[in-house]
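A reminder before we start the practical. When you read a complex entry, don't treat the lines as separate problems. The point of joint prediction is that each chain is placed relative to the others, so the output describes one connected object in space. Small molecules and nucleic acid strands, if listed, are placed in the same frame. In the example below there are two entries. Take a minute to note the order of the lines before looking further.
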Amino acid sequence: MLFFTLCHINQLPEAHVLGDSIKSYHQEADFYIGLIDKKERIPGNFRANYPVIEISEVKIASFDDMAKRYTWTELQGNVKPFFAEFFLKQAEKVIYFDCTTLVYNPLDFIAKSLNNYTIIIVPQLLHAGIHPDEKQILNTGIFHSGFMAWRKSDEAKNFLNWWGNNTATKGYIDLCKGMNADQLWLEHVPNFYTNVLIEKHEGLNIGAWNLPERLIDISKNTVNSQPLISVNFKGMKYSADYKQKIKKYLIAQTLPMYGQPDPQNKKIGKQFARNIRKINSFIDKLIDLI
Amino acid sequence: MTLAFTLCSVNYLAQAHTLGDSLKQHNPHIKFIIGLVDKLETKDIDTSKLPEYPLLELDKINIADLAGMCDRYDITELNTAVKPFYIDYFLKNHPEADNIIYFDPDIIVFDKLTHLEENLEKYNTVVTPHITTPYNDNKWQNEEDVVNTGIFNFGFVAIHRSETAQQMIDWWCKKLEKECLIDLCNGLFVDQHWADFFPVYFDKVLINKHLGYNVAYWNLHERFCSQIDGRWFINENTPLQFFHYSGYLIAKANEVSKYQNRINFEERPDIVPLFELYRNALLKNNELYWKHFRCDYIKPPKIKRYLRVRKYLKMPLEKLAQLVES
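Here is the predicted structure of the whole assembly.
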């Protein structure tokens, strides 16, 4: 079994913490870090404990265009199909986790499922009518690309080829057009391929998007009464415990060399503007009454 | 017992009539009802032209907030929003119906639906993907458009009476009461996009990849049609179950569909007879008569008065909004 994650240089500490958590349950398994950068740019005082595969080793035909086209965040998702294909050349079963993930239990059940399936994907939500804004999930993807697993097979290869073709050219975050980097393409996967498992384990890939529907019991390490498998801190405030773990692997800030800087978060301004416009639409309603 | 229904306004009665006839020809045991998103009494109708199938008007199925929905939605949104409300009505008022099938009115059935009815014994819900293979081209609509509007086509859905199906319908009704909008930037596309959740939220949902189902412009790239001994087949080995003439207009009979540019009759002579027979059936069922009726649920265009006053009253806050946004 081979595990891998993907990161920019700044996220090497997170990737290491993920590696440590995987190794504590799967000592024998391989863990690789796919780096969307050059190894020589890793600051000298940082000692990588896990093998790092830099992007140039994966040989993505259209990578130069992708680096110009995409932001750092988009690029990080869009190279995933190519890294997955790369690792499937060296292992029978490959599992991907976002680098912001921590593993809390063994993943043998995934390895077992891979005997019967070639592709495993995980939904963002599992329960109808609980998340306060389900349409936001429709907009960003029924499935979450922060966890995936594949078995070496023609089907997995076909899938990764198709996925990579799309992420190479249509991997923007542009929700109005039905694109969300690598993630929204996954909607098609159960329709296009035969041996696809939609893994509905309650404890897998816990994150900001599914917290409203998952009851976590720390004392028993369970989620909705099933074992807690993994937590993905992507887009969430890091917990104190998680921060502590990352601190062990200090690294000097290094900006990614590929991809465009991520746009600044304009969420708060937009929310404010929307509320101001609500007052204006009230003026419209008042005039309609005249 | 299996109950099938469609939804349309009076101007689409020729299509609904044609669907009903095709269903009856191959499946006389299936009861067919036309759900009418319209009112009959307001119109001067030649009743001899009405199809023989029961018509069930929208205001007769006890939707709690019908007035609110009519207010919120345009005619397309309203037409699609009421789908689960009709299913709910049938579940409650037709206890003899074990299976309920919805077809868009612009569908015709070509076969006995044995495959579907057998699957409804094993599954709670049957849905059909728009496509089961990639397009591999840059035409319209493409794979991201399908993602944006919903991976399953909701011109067809079938459910088997069960607790889970009822839960699914309840959830769907709740969503469609307020959020059956076309608002792609916010993840909304009428009833259809919501249904992407079905296989992850509910058990025993069959993603039915049988190539004879819901054949339409969006999947003709993977489906070749041919007639063998008077029967229609897909890729020469799969019996055509039903064809969906989405976006086809008699007035523009040389265009396959107004929603796409991938499929045309010149390159696809195999589908020409399928459209010819559809056109003839519509004409026979008085398409030219029905198409002129105006639906009672179409809202009159909103007239805004005092435009200049509005503009100046709103300007200071709009400027502020633009400022905080940038």
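Discuss with your neighbour: Chain B touches chain A through 50 residues (CB under 8 Å). What might explain this?
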